[in-house]
Amino acid sequence: MLRNIKYRTRLLVVVMGLAFVVGACSKSKGLADDPYAGGKEVLDIGFVSKTTDPDIVEAGSTLDLKVRGLMKYKDAFKLFVNEIEAEVLNYTDTTIQFVVPLTASTGSVWITANDQSFFGPIVKIGGKVSLDPTFKVINGASTIGEGFGSGIFSTTQLPNGNIWLTGYFNNFEQQGTEKAPNGGIVQIGPEGNYTTSGVSFGIGVEGGLKAITSINRISSGAQNGKFIIAGSFNAYNSRKENRRTIGNITRLNANGSLDTVTTTEIVNPKPEITWKDVDTIPAFNGGVLGFIRKTFVFGEKVYAIGSFTSYVRMFLPNSSYDEKVYDMTRMSQLVRMNMDGSMDSTFHFNREARQSPVGANGGIADAIMQADGKLILVGNFTTFNNEPANRIVRLNLDGSVDKSFQSGAAANGDIYSIRYNANTTKIIVTGNFTTYNGKPSSTLAVLNADGSVDDTFKGELISGGGATFAAQLNSGKILVTGSFNKYGSYLRQGFMILEPDGKLAVSYNNTGGFQGRVYDMIETENAKESKVILVGEISRFNAAIFRNILRINISK
């Protein structure tokens, strides 16, 4: 048993200063020669137009812009739209007319001449994908005070259409303060409006990294309508030291308040203080030592997956109001708990050794649960429970390796993300790999539900970086984000939409560059379009700046 376990993880950023000692100069001269002498003279070329008319143009259409100084460099300049060369039809010293390239996407227009570049306005390319101007999130998620950044890691949509967002942030839509933060959890309406109606999050999570990386709504059983949250924290809606009793996972009521119970099982070392005969503790009495990446609820069981070494549970008969004593069981990376938080020893547990098997020999980056309750884990491991598992493994309901999963040689590099679409029954993985099951696969692979490679998907080379997130839309098209800049020979700057067979979807790749990383997605559909909310660590998309959340419209 452990006494007074406290979870206080701090990130320390050490900034090392370099001292430059400047000696005395022996020269008697004053100023040195001009370091820029002999450089090229700047050409007198420029764009007069600051915007385009119309504001949104179609690929293949003709566009006119006002310029200056072109005639001096007749036939010695080129014009580009977001890195794609455009055909120039006519020009004078004050105007230029060109054809917007068929493969162009939203971005700047510029002219190059004599190895110099001159930038003009943003050319917004029309198509079937666009930022949703009706989405009401403006300032997004950020961090004030002590912190190391911000991000939204997980989402869940309620039956009334409202959405709960969780992550590492304490200020959403400029509503958080240091005294009253949005501690890793907020609610927005169906159209993105920040709302506290019907919820009581208080100050959210405290302790650890103050991060919620996973949220699940319980949809059946005695706890129906409540929520499981997990990540890195040790308290909820409290900064009191003696309330830091949560082991990185807990349960919330339907209104977002902490689900608690009153107990008299504790001891009171000072009987004269009678009010300490009773304590209020989290109703979910279970947790881990470490970090939880994903959680799942299946039936009356709660699954936790992450980077942790042990399962812990408050032992109330030896605990007091101010100090808690914990039972601890060595559980590596995976644990299954009952609805009261107690550990289920029929999953990923060796009864003889009284601890878990070894698990993965590397980190688990992501996971999904299939409809039958089986887990699929991905990461940078090559074995699981000492059995071969090249960065992906499926587990049986007892936590053992499911050898019927047809992953074969799987990925030859790390897998970062995994998504499953129940409508199409396809699994999509992304990562730092070039082959999957021995076949060329450039940082993206599409799998069947049994783990075999979907041979109908013929992906092209992804270059300039890699895919870090991909998900199949209900239409079958595949949304991909990452750090890449090309797909085959096509310029795609961190965002693209593919057909189910791997070809770029015609008219769906008009948007400009994407910067950041997506962790979760919500798709809602109507007769005309899909609306897709993307969350993560997102800073820019389609020439606009964001703070970790945006919504796009995808026409049908």
Automatic annotation (TrEMBL):
InterPro entries: Delta_60_rpt, DUF5008. Pfam families: DUF5008, DUF5122. It comes from the Bacteria. SUPFAM superfamilies: Calcium-dependent phosphotriesterase. Residues 30-121 form the DUF5008 domain. Gene3D superfamilies: 2.80.10.50. This is DUF5008 domain-containing protein. It comes from Sphingobacterium anhuiense.
